[in-house]
Design a protein that fits this description.
525 residues, Ubiquitin-like (UB roll), 4-stranded mixed sheet, 22 strands, 13% helix
Length: 525
């Protein structure tokens, strides 16, 4: 018996007819599954008639497999084609899965899942799993043959220039990866970004799918970054951090971060709330994420649901009162409507930050770790917590405080306009509804260009420093900011572009919201 399994589990269903990507069974093994063969029968004709008879026999085998489970036992797992990758890595990824299959049908499905797992290691150009007959003295057994083609070029890289319309800035970004250096499926990467007037970042890291007896992926990364928030909150943020991935599975992720953070104000015009947090801080945080994503697409979901919960405990090393607990939820669903390939996407998110310590509600939460609403990124694509509030500037919603008056230098000592610092909030809620639909022109449909109409809403308030005493549920509900609009979405291989017309429905006195045309860029990853 011999069968080959491809990467997609759906393509490996045993009831499908044999193709180049479907399981194929050797002719001499058909009799194991109830196909009668009479050696005394006359020889089969050659040519088209023989080919047609062969197809009918293969089809009958698949029909038998789809209707009657056939027991089988894996005798051995044979690995071929790996000159650098260690056998124990491949076996650890797939051997237990394959040996646990009690029937041929289960084994074919397990082989497809195993092939997908090996592809996800990102160190193989091709993976093929074949099921061959076991030893003649052990009927009902099979040998699993795993053939891999290691990456021809272990070094890959990307580079590009990206625009951020919401902050009117550009950035040059690039990354370099070195794959499978030591044969453990290890991936070493270096990345850098230089943003004019806003962001600079360099980082190096390594990830391992598993190491020796540790069954979960491991990750370590060091980064140095600088973030300019002077236009929004009158401070620059410099971070030198180490990050360690402790647990990573399909639904769970646990990481530890140790970061030396410095907040500075070169303008010397920051508000009192910002000035209190300027200086150096050591942030030690443990972060846990639980995620479920059953949507059919990340860029244009038409059915399914998704949920993510992120919990973070900061201040494991006591330094200047940076102890806090941060919790976020995000849930969303997509429902097909049955016309013009339309679908309704709805979602809601919420988050809260609480300082930790004696009299915690009178303490101040860290400004960089608070919640900020606004931005131009698509609320449909992101699944990371609070969704964007389209039509509002980045960090353009929520509590503010006036900046200090700076004596003017050109007019003999008069005061320049102070502006305001956006401080973020400790409690935030956001929601959106998005109706996507095909455009009537076939040219647009073939290119994936489609339209959408949306409604977004959200609110953020401060609870720390005793502000919780002023909190009112009715006032929080009545001060929700909201926007609506329509737009056209242009998907590309590099990113998804949205051209939206946003209309501000409701905003507060100091919010930065503007009705008009806005652009959104979302990563396809």
């Amino acid at each position: 018996m011999a069968a080959a399994a491809d990467q997609n589990p759906k393509d490996a269903e045993p009831h499908e007819p044999a193709t180049d990507e479907s399981p194929e069974f050797a002719e001499e093994e058909y009799d194991e599954y109830g196909e009668d063969e009479d050696e005394d029968e006359e020889e089969e004709p050659d040519g088209p008639a023989a080919a047609a008879a062969e197809r009918e026999r293969v089809k009958s085998v698949f029909q038998r497999l789809s209707s009657d489970p056939v027991g089988i036992r894996v005798h051995d797992v044979v690995i071929k084609g790996n000159s650098k990758t260690r056998d124990d890595l491949i076996e650890a990824e797939v051997a237990d899965l394959l040996r646990a299959a009690p029937t041929v049908q289960d084994l074919l499905r397990a082989a497809s899942v195993a092939s997908a797992r090996l592809h996800r290691l990102d160190v193989f150009d091709a993976v093929k799993i074949t099921l061959d007959a076991g030893p003649p003295e052990l009927p009902g057994t099979t040998n699993v043959v795993i053939e891999v083609v290691e990456a021809a070029n272990p070094v890959t890289g990307t580079a590009g220039v990206y625009s951020k319309p919401e902050s009117r800035s550009w950035s040059l970004e690039g990354s370099l990866k070195l794959k499978n250096l030591f044969g453990y499926g290890d991936i070493w990467d270096a990345s850098g970004a230089y943003g004019w007037d806003q962001t600079t970042e360099v980082g190096v890291g390594v990830s391992l799918p598993r190491f020796k007896s540790i069954p979960t992926p491991l990750m370590a990364r060091a980064s140095l970054s600088s973030q300019d928030w002077l236009k929004f909150s009158s401070y620059k943020e410099r971070l030198f951090g180490l990050s360690f991935g402790l647990l990573s599975t399909l639904n769970h992720d646990l990481s530890y971060n140790l970061t030396w953070r410095t907040l500075t104000d070169p303008s010397r015009a920051s508000s009192k709330a910002i000035r209190r947090q300027l200086g150096h801080n050591l942030l030690s945080a443990l972060k846990y994420t639980y995620k479920i994503d059953e949507r059919d697409s990340h860029l244009r979901p038409t059915k399914g649901y998704a949920f993510i919960s992120t919990s973070q405990v900061g201040g494991l090393c006591d330094s200047r009162g940076l102890k806090f607990f941060r919790q976020e939820f995000d849930v969303r669903s997509a429902v097909p409507l049955g016309f013009y390939n339309s679908a309704l996407n709805v979602g809601a998110g919420a988050g809260i930050v609480l300082p930790l310590g004696r009299g915690f509600m009178n303490l101040s939460s860290p400004v960089p770790d608070r919640f900020y609403l606004g931005g131009h990124s698509s609320p449909v694509c992101s699944l990371s917590g609070l969704s964007s509030l389209l039509g509002f500037r980045t960090r353009g919603v929520g509590p503010t405080e006036p900046r200090r008056l700076i004596p003017g230098e050109s007019d003999g000592g008069s005061a320049a306009p102070p502006g305001r610092d956006y401080l973020g909030g400790d409690l935030a809620v956001s929601a959106f509804a998005d109706l996507s639909f095909d455009l009537p022109l076939k040219l647009f449909r073939d290119a994936g260009i489609h339209g959408h109409a949306f409604l977004t809403a959200g609110n953020v308030v401060k609870l720390s420093e005793g502000e919780y005493k002023k909190f009112s549920v009715s006032e929080f509900r009545h001060t929700f900011r909201s926007s609506a609009g329509v737009g056209i979405i242009l998907p590309t291989k590099l990113f998804r572009v949205e051209v939206n017309y946003c209309y501000i429905l409701k905003q507060a006195e100091h919010d930065c919201g503007k009705t008009g045309i806005q652009f959104s860029f979302s990563s396809p990853l």
